[in-house]
Design a protein that fits this description.
269 residues, mainly alpha, DNA polymerase, domain 1, hpI Integrase, Chain A, 2 domains, 3-stranded antiparallel β-sheet, 12 helices, 3 strands, 54% helix
Length: 269
C-alpha cells in the first residue's frame, strides 16, 4: 500500500533521528515491510495496526517454523515501530513462542494410531466434504496451515489413483511436491466434485466463495480438539516410522534445517 510505504519512510527518518546504525535501520525497515505485506494480504494496513493483528502475526511466524529467537527479534522491532506510532500499548501482552533450552531434545506431540482413527471417524461423521478433505490433507501431506490456505486448484494434480500437491512455502520462494495418499485422495476428489469443472481459484473456499483463512480452519479444528501443528507432526513422525531417509522427510515437510526433522527420531515413550 502506498500509505504504508510512506509510513515506513517516515519510520526510517525517525530511526535516523534516534541515531540508530545503518544496519539496524535496514533490519527494522525490512521487518516492518514484511509485516506490511502480511497486513495487505488481509486488507489491513500499518496505519491501523492493532493488538490482535500483531498477535496473529506472531502466531503465523511460529506456525511457519520460525525460531523463538527470530520471533523475539521481529517482535522487538514491532515494539519500536509502535513507539514511533505513539501507540506502544498495542504491543503489550503479546504471547510468543517460548524459548526452549534445547529444542532438539523434545519430540513434537503427534497422534497415536487410536487417536487418529477417532479423529477421522469424528470428522467423517459430520459429513462436511470440504472439512473432511482439509483434515486429510493436513494429516497426510504435512502441509502447513498457511500453505494450505494458499493452495489453488491448479496446485492439485490427479492422474487416476495417483495425486500430488505442489506446496509453496509461506515466503513464496520455494516449492515442493508431495504425494497425496489414496485415503486422502478419495476425500479430496469428493470435495473437488463439488466445484465446477472449469474452476481454477483457491482450493478451499468458504460458503461465500472466498479463500479460507487460517483462523477459520483453526476454529473448525477446535471442534475436534486438534490443532494443525499436531497433524503436521503426525505426518512427519509417520514418515520416520516408515523408514524414510531423514533428508527425504525434511524435503517433504519443507524443513530448511534438518535438525528440526531430527526431533522426530526421539522416542518419548
Amino acid at each position: 500500500m502506498d500509505s504504508d510505504a510512506s509510513l515506513i519512510d517516515s519510520f526510517e527518518e525517525w530511526l535516523l533521528h534516534q541515531e540508530k546504525s545503518p544496519n539496524t535501520i535496514h533490519t527494522y525497515k525490512s521487518a516492518i515491510q514484511k509485516l506490511s505485506y502480511w497486513l495487505e494480504e488481509r486488507n489491513l494496513s500499518l496505519r491501523k495496526l492493532s493488538h490482535s493483528s500483531i498477535q496473529d502475526y506472531m502466531n503465523e511466524l511460529e506456525q511457519e517454523g520460525k525460531s523463538a529467537s527470530t520471533i523475539d527479534k521481529i517482535y522487538a522491532t514491532i515494539r519500536v515501530f509502535t513507539q514511533f506510532l505513539d501507540h506502544p500499548a498495542i504491543a503489550d501482552n503479546i504471547k510468543r513462542k517460548e524459548k526452549e533450552k534445547n529444542i532438539y531434545q523434545t519430540a513434537p506431540e503427534f497422534l497415536r494410531a487410536d487417536e487418529r482413527t477417532q479423529l477421522l471417524k469424528d470428522v467423517e461423521k459430520d459429513k462436511d466434504i470440504r472439512n473432511t478433505a482439509i483434515v486429510h490433507m493436513l494429516l497426510y501431506t504435512g502441509v502447513r496451515l498457511s500453505e494450505l490456505c494458499n493452495l489453488d486448484r491448479s496446485d492439485i494434480n490427479i492422474n487416476g489413483q495417483i495425486g500430488t500437491v505442489t506446496i509453496t512455502n509461506p515466503k513464496g520462494d520455494k516449492k515442493r511436491i508431495v504425494p497425496i495418499p489414496k485415503d486422502a485422495l478419495k476425500f479430496l476428489k469428493s470435495y473437488l466434485e463439488t466445484l465446477s469443472q472449469d474452476y481454477a481459484g483457491p482450493l478451499f473456499i468458504s460458503k461465500q466463495n472466498n479463500r479460507l483463512t487460517t483462523r477459520s480452519i483453526q476454529y473448525m479444528l477446535e471442534k475436534y480438539d486438534i490443532n494443525p501443528h499436531k497433524l503436521r507432526h503426525t505426518f512427519c513422525r509417520d514418515l520416520i516410522e516408515k523408514g524414510l531417509d531423514i533428508a527425504v522427510v525434511a524435503q517433504l515437510a519443507g524443513h530448511n534445517d534438518i535438525n528440526i526433522t531430527k526431533r522426530y527420531l526421539i522416542n518419548d515413550d
